[in-house]
Amino acid sequence: MNYQHMAEIAQIGFVTRISDPDTNQLISSQKAVVNTSAYGSFDYSYDESGETAYDDNGIKLVYKGLSDDGLHDPMFYINNQSEKDIVINVKDFKLNGTKAEGVFGAEVFSGCRALNPIGSFEETKSGDTVEVTFEICERSENHSDERVLYTTDAFTFTL
Predict the structure, then answer these.
(1) Structural domain tally of the chain?
(2) What CATH number has the domain bearing residue 72?
(3) What pLDDT, in 10s, does the model give residues 95-152?
(4) What distance in Å separates the CA atoms of residue 67 and residue 34, rounded to the nearest whole number?
(5) Nearest to 90 by CA among 145, 151, 159
(6) pTM (two decimals)
(7) For a designed S-S bond to 58, which of 12, 72, 81, 115 qualifies (C-beta 3.0 to 4.6 A apart)?
(8) Domain ranges, residue 131
(9) Is the CB of residue 115 less than 8 Å from the CB of residue 9?
(10) Could you give the CA distance from residue 107 to residue 2 in angstroms, rounded to a whole number?
(11) Is 57 helix (H, G, I), strand (E, B) or coil?
């Protein structure tokens, strides 16, 4: 396997949610972590190179370039060494100076790392300029209860 420069996956974290189909009210939410056979079998190294968008409060966001999955979305590495499970959302997104829709919702458990793309409904090309502001929220069992912890400064990069 070699997805987004990850040679092997040792640990996978995910959340299951069960909600009432009629009211959409959350009934249950569970956080789970699964260790693969690779877990604990090697020393971990993390490539934090790239353009740093945010590095404070135990949380680091780094622009890594474009995804190599054919969609060519901007990829961000997230390192959450804070005490809280977090959700990172796009607050503002501009493409070549024009407000656009950026889709990004990364849930990252405390002590974990993730790679996530920002999707856009706009067609992008090499040389485009993107300006993005993120909201970092404390993860809640019910997304409507998420509390904004930090709002990043606007981060500008070129595709």
Answers:
(1) 1
(2) 2.60.40
(3) 888 888 777 778 888 888 888 887 776 777 778 888 888 888 887 665 566 788 888 8
(4) 25
(5) 151
(6) 0.73
(7) 81
(8) 47-158
(9) no
(10) 22
(11) coil
